[in-house]
């Protein structure tokens, strides 16, 4: 057997610096609390591998049942599947309903297989055109409009009502609600999204984050979300990383998106690792989970990228990373892909990555939604 999930909880009780065992939602479902705890335990020795939109579509295909490019290469789906709430607003009611149903099915299927879902939100600007990107000639700084006191606040609540309704509908074959890692307003330290740093103040962003969590959790009784905070890679120290942090009581997981240091703009493994260590160290100190929430190299022309860049970055220091996620494989583009498919030049190296005991795929997970008992202790 390649990996074993049996990591003794007793060690967590005896050692200091162990990740907290409860999410910020005191009423979180049993399965959500178990996922949070187990991700923390696994991150002491492993990192789960994730791929965005892995089972929805891939290089040259879409909508095939139980398929992913990663599974076609390795025999296993990624341990973490990325989906998106992008279709939950800014479209016709019929299109929104279709999007919700497609994401619901994906999340339930992943949960039933024993995998993990993380949700990004490429949120179309609710007060102007431009979609989720900032477009100088079109976009309005939407955050100030949708936070409490803003003229579009009630409209934002309606959008969240739709997310809340969806969250109550994702029940697995066991009848339980499937937990998801919800990662809204990502890469907020850049200017490319309308919620980015150049288009909203620190106070407005924090207000948006706190209201979003509070409304979902406390008003809509959503108790199957784990909340992840992830800037891009512009920070150089902990203070910069935490510049727009809403506070420990509002965040379950801290992360970083980083393509630039991982080969897109430059190969800077030491720089990328140093930034990841800032994230991991803060998580240890604050009792949070940590993750490498987005990365990858488009087209993967580097035949050793998986072991010589990604794995080396994550292993350089003593870090605890719950998962690493690479971006999507576009179904139409011949070049826009971030995970290998059969015949892609990095497949041999990806198989080395797959067989490394540090990395976990879906087949390696064992009851991640249940707390283990050891010596009678939960």
Automatic annotation (TrEMBL):
UniProt-listed Enzyme Commission number(s): 3.2.1.78
Pfam families: Glyco_hydro_26
Record flagged with keyword Cell wall biogenesis/degradation: no
Annotated residues for binding of substrate: 122, 192, 259
Domain GH26 residue range list: 30-363
Keywords, in A-Z order: Carbohydrate metabolism, Glycosidase, Hydrolase, Secreted, Signal
Protein name: Mannan endo-1,4-beta-mannosidase
The organism of origin for this protein: Pontibacter diazotrophicus
Taxonomic lineage of the native organism: Bacteria, Pseudomonadati, Bacteroidota, Cytophagia, Cytophagales
């Amino acid at each position: 057997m390649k990996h074993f999930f049996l990591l003794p909880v007793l060690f967590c009780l005896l050692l200091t610096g162990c990740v907290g065992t409860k999410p910020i939602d005191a009423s979180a479902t049993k399965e959500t609390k178990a996922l949070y705890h187990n991700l923390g335990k696994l991150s002491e020795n492993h990192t789960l591998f994730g791929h965005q939109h892995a089972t929805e579509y891939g290089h040259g295909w879409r909508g095939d049942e139980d398929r992913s490019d990663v599974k076609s290469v390795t025999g296993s789906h990624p341990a973490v599947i990325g989906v998106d709430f992008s279709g939950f607003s800014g479209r016709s009611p019929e299109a929104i309903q279709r999007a919700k149903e497609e994401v619901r099915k994906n999340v339930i299927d992943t949960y039933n297989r024993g995998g993990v879902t993380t949700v990004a939100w490429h949120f179309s600007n609710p007060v102007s055109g431009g979609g989720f990107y900032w477009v100088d000639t079109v976009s309005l700084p939407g955050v100030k409009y949708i936070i409490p006191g803003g003229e579009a606040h009630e409209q934002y609540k309606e959008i969240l009502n739709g997310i809340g309704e969806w969250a109550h509908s994702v029940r697995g074959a066991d009848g339980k609600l499937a937990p998801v890692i919800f990662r809204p307003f990502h890469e907020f330290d850049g200017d490319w999204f309308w919620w980015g740093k150049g288009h909203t103040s620190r106070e407005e962003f924090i207000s948006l984050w706190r209201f979003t969590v509070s409304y979902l959790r406390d008003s809509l009784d959503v108790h199957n979300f784990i909340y992840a905070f992830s800037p891009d890679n512009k920070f150089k120290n902990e203070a910069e990383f935490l510049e727009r942090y809403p506070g420990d009581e509002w965040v379950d997981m801290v992360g970083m998106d980083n393509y630039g240091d991982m080969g897109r703009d430059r190969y800077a493994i030491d720089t990328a690792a140093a930034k990841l260590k800032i994230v991991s160290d803060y998580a240890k100190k604050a009792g949070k989970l940590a993750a490498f929430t987005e990365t990858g190299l488009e087209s993967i022309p580097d035949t050793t990228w998986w072991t010589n860049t990604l794995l080396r970055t994550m292993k350089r220091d003593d870090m605890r990373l719950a998962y690493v996620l690479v971006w999507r494989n576009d179904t139409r583009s011949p070049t826009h892909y971030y995970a290998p498919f059969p015949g892609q030049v990095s497949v041999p190296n990806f198989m080395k990555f797959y067989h490394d005991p540090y990395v976990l795929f879906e087949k390696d997970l064992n009851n991640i939604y249940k707390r283990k008992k050891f010596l009678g202790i939960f």
